[in-house]
Amino acid sequence: MKAQTILPVTAALFVAATLPAQNGLDPAKLGAPPTDTWPTYNGDYSGRRYSPLAKINQSNITSLTLAWIYRANGSGGAGGFGGRISATPVEVNGVLYFTMPDHMWAVDARTGREVWHYQWTSHGGDHIGNRGAGVYGNWLYFETPDCHLVSLNMKDGKERWHQPICDLDQYYFGSMSPLVVRNHVITGVSGDDLDRPGYIESHDPETGALQWRWYTVPQKKGDPGADSWPSVEAMRHGGGMTWLTPTYDPELNMIYVPTGNPQPVIAGKARPGANLFTASIVALNPDTGKMQWYFQSSPHDTHDWDATQTPVLFDGEIDGRPRKLVAQATRNGYFYVLDRATGKNISSNPYVKINWSKGVDANGSPIPNPAKQPQLDGALVSPNQGGATNWPPPTFDPDTGLFYVSASRAFSVYYIYDPSDKPEGWGGNDRGGWSESMLQAIDYKTGKVKWTHKWEDGGRSGLLSTAGKLLFAGDGSGNLVALDPATGKPLWHANLGSSVTNGPITYELDGIQYLVAGAGDTLVAFAMLR
Amino acid sequence: MRKGIWVAAMLFAPVIGGAQSPPAAREAFQKVCGACHSVDTVTAQGRTRDQWRESINAMVARGAKATDEEFAMILDYLTAQYPPGAAGRGAPAAFAGGGRGRPPAMSPGPADKQVIDEAAALRGRKVYAAECITCHGTHARGSERGADLIRSEVVLHDRYGSTIGPFLRNGHPTQTTPAAQLTEAQIVDLSHTLHQEVYNTLRAALEIQNVLTGDPKAGAAYFSGAGGCSGCHSPTGDLAHIGSRMDPPSLQQSFLFPGGRGGRGGRGRGGRGGESGSAHPVTVTVTPQSGAAVTGVLLHLDDFNVALRDASGDYHSFVRTASLKVVKHDPAEAHHELLDQYTDKNIHDIVAYLETLK
To answer: Which of A386, B95, B96, B307 sits most deeply, having the most CB atoms within 10 A of its CB?
Structure first.
């Protein structure tokens, strides 16, 4: 419950006068460029994490002031619970809503004062992280590690209902930030301990009732993708979890779902084939759950390289022609640009040096080198299991036309542990490693890296770009850093005491632009007061 | 008991984790493991020392960051505080032991998962061998004749026979012995056996097989030739008897990712290598525009600051500016550069060669 206000007195008075304006979210705000609200995981539907705000900009960034600090672990009774904030907060009508596994908080976006805190009584599940809340009108939605979708009243954090979204006994769990599209609350499932099929669901925002479910792997003979599996047994247990919030194009009415790795994770012997639609970007109709197209970024993955990195939507020019694009910097080290209406591949280029691919096929999907699949005596592979990037969200800045991603050049040795004919679960793993971390700025037109900024001491945070000609990132030493998006030159930093653990956000209230980042168990807010 | 992988190599450093006070170890545990996930996720399940080492290795591969001392302390702490529950491997100690005041298990799977009774599981194996093995296979993973029971929802939903029992009594299509002939106790025993097979499928139950597949002669040639290893190392000097001191998986990891610093995602070339107590720490020389150069063990380096400890033990910290010269020296640099050059055959040959240095 620690909230420190460090604003000058005048600002604090202003804040007090406008504090509890808790109305629901205007649906028009969903999908609009984020200014006074940040209403979705990515700020808007596009996944660009680009803010049109420019009160904080290159010319005044060194005047940025600490506004407040909120420590979440101080909340919820004695002892805290040791979590970290990997959620991107949503901000609606001056209140921030953010989550950790089993917990949601409402915090005053101007002062960091706690408005309410909700705790779910857990029945287990992997508590590795929670990516945040979805908003619809007066209601909030979040997933719990023990497989529930919970809806809360925005006003007071009181539970409205909860619905099961997966089976805990099958080692599924919930971690994804639900996506709200019109009257659909889209939920995903996590879990890779046992061999279960992944799926994505749509729920009624009023009741939580199931509207549709789409399996990421075929469920019976003859289903699309079934010929990429050796047997019904293999595909029905083929994984492809939906760990990450999709993006959405309202005009095309498609959601872009990134899918996870196939199961068994490392020992792929009993699942020869491409293993569709794991490690893919899949476009679905949000009203029906019907697949529109797919693109597989890691055919027959055996390195835990899920494709659950944000598919970022933007319009651009390719060969002089305007195109509707979707781009993804994938965990396996490739940067893909696709036509988001058709899924047709435009370019596939590694954004860090990798050693496992023999090039790309006619569809633009990489061709894995069999020698670099996990081996009994070990295969040195780059990137490692952590990936060339991971779930932390990238950003696309329309002003520079560059796509920015927290990247790693990493090596480890992949081993098969289970040499039997039917390995299950993982059947192997990677060990050890060496890595270097960097920010990569990628030109989507060429697929080439325009600039690299290496971090001396690691760093893998979510990113934010703004019209203030600023790119925000976290390094491995606990610094929140603002860089010049054109060159990668650091312009400002503040040490938060812990590395940035989520994607930073920004919003403007009462003419003041705020910047908020999660660092461990703490939200830290900066403000531009002049 | 096999030796651990590269964490074992780390522990050659003169660090006695056991001598650390539990509060310091607990603090290290909270800091390092709690940085990424709830610590209750970890302690919900008791493990042996080797299993804890496996867990730490897995976390290092996922980017856990700590000094060698901290990893050693955490290993000792977890081994002492969270041994396997009375129910044994893979079972959640929270339910076997209880009383630690911890919240419900936050490890993968349900909090009320079955706690294995080893003796019952052993008895159940006999039932399994007599009644089930022909169709469901040695490890219950199924065959052409029978379903995979590890993947069976009847099994995954079961607690102590709660769903397996009714299934066997009602629905089993090809059962050779009528279910009525299995006693309640036998069904419970069978349930323990099947859940044990499920737990043995989970990640913590896995191990490296055999990495000793290379050609020692080719390894020796690479060592003194293309690899350039003999420039710094000698089979009769620093590497004398290395094959007796390390098992092959540790050997493999230690030259690929030396100093036990590998695997900390993002640590890479930078960082706090100097804090590790390593025999060959990363050093740095900092030269201000006016004033003498200072050299010492690198403690911290980012875009904005650099800190080091000099030979007399004094701490120095600098703000990085254009006029401040910072030169880092990583004695393992040659190893990092080799990562782009080794073939997997080179790697296996080197392991085979080092293994001969008994």
So the answer is: A386
CATH number of the structural domain B118-201: 1.10.760
B355 min Cα distance to partner chain A (Å): 14
Query: Any idea what the CATH number is for the domain that residue A278 is in?
Result: 2.140.10.10
Among B residues 118-157, those touching chain A with beta carbons less than 8 Å apart? 139, 141-142, 148, 150-151, 153, 156-157
Q: Which segments within A103-253 are labelled E, that is strand?
A: 103-108, 114-119, 134-136, 139-143, 148-153, 159-164, 179-181, 184-188, 199-203, 210-215, 247-249
Cβ–Cβ of B142/A422 closer than 8 Å? Answer: yes
Give the SS3 label for residue B222: helix
Q: Is the model more confident about B35 or about A160?
A: A160
Whether residue B277 is predicted with pLDDT greater than 60 in this model: the reply is: no
Task: For chain B, give every residue range classified as CATH 1.10.760.
Answer: 118-201
Instruction: Give tens-digit pLDDT for A293-341.
Output: 999 999 999 999 999 999 999 999 999 999 999 999 999 999 999 999 9
pLDDT confidence of residue B299:
96
How many structural domains is chain A composed of? 1
For residue A410, list its beta bridge partners: A435
Whether the pLDDT of residue A22 is over 90: the answer is no
d(CA A342, CA A325): 10
Pair of tokens at residue A157 = 């954090």
Mean pLDDT to the nearest integer, B135-160: 95
Q: Hey, is B257 helix, strand or coil? A: coil
Interchain contact, A424 vs B60, CB within 8 Å: no
- Structure tokens given for A238: 């083929």
A229-280 pLDDT tens trace = 999 999 999 999 999 999 999 999 999 999 999 999 999 999 999 999 999 9
* Min Cα–Cα distance to chain A from B184, Å: 23
Nearest to A216, CA basis, from A230, A228, A205: A228
How large is the average pLDDT for residues A191-201?
97
ipTM of the complex: 0.90
pTM score, two decimals? Answer: 0.87
What are the residues whose beta carbons fall under 8 Å from the beta carbon of B154, sequence distance 6 or more?
B163, B164, B167
CB contact under 8 A, A425 and B40: no
Catalytic residue among A44, A146, A249, A304: A304
For residue A490, what is the enclosing H or E element?
Answer: strand A490-495
Q: Roughly how many angstroms between the first and final C-alpha of chain B, as a whole number?
A: 20
Q: How far apart are CA B280 and CA B68, in angstroms?
A: 13
Residue A101 tokens read as 């596994």
Query: Is the separation of the CB atoms in B190 and A411 below 8 Å?
Result: no
3-state secondary structure A355-385: CCEEEECCCCCEEECHHHCCECCCEEECCCC
- Mean pLDDT for A142-147 is 97
Q: Which domain holds residue A73?
A: 2-528
